[in-house]
Design a protein that fits this description.
Keywords: Signal. This is Lipocalin-like domain-containing protein. It is a single chain. The protein is of the alpha+beta class and 147 residues long. It has one domain. Helix content is 22%, strand content 46%. Strands 1-2-3-4-5-6-7-8 form an 8-stranded antiparallel barrel.
């Protein structure tokens, strides 16, 4: 009986988690891969919050998403350190087995070598497109709107 209750609660949690993520990203149908190409800088309030938790040289301060699926990632406030990697569009990751599984979607996933650096959701608010991951909020440079 307790196993059934735990399973039911876990299933309910998965459904709630999935519904929350789909409502925050309601403009998915309009957003295309080309909308996210270009240079993205971390928002100042996001950088300040991250600086309290990490060393500055480990904070991603700017990303350049290229059309050939390559990315250049800049670290620190002065952007002295840069790393090359790959990025993918609309990635879905499923974790679990035949009994229960969770599916997570990300609009932009940046990998450096074999490691995922950032998995981000693209959110449009008041005509401005932002990429959001954990404590990171990136804003597009030189373009205020996706349309």
């Amino acid at each position: 009986m307790i196993k059934k209750i735990k399973f039911s609660l876990l299933l309910l949690f998965a459904v709630l988690l999935n519904s929350c993520s789909s409502t925050t990203n309601s403009n998915d149908a309009e957003l295309t891969r080309t909308d996210v190409l270009g240079t993205w800088t971390v928002a100042s309030q996001s950088y300040e919050k991250l600086a309290e938790e990490k060393n500055e040289d480990k904070i991603v301060s700017k990303i350049q998403l290229n059309s050939d699926s390559t990315v250049t990632v800049f670290f620190g406030k002065r952007m002295e350190k840069e790393t090359k990697g790959k990025w993918r569009w609309k990635v879905e990751k499923t974790v679990g087995n035949d009994t229960i599984s969770f599916s997570m979607e990300s609009d932009v996933v940046i990998t450096i070598g074999r490691h995922t650096l950032l998995a981000m959701q693209a959110i449009e608010n008041k005509g401005r497109l932002k990429l959001i991951a954990r404590n990171y909020i990136f804003e597009k440079k030189n373009k205020s709107s996706i349309r």
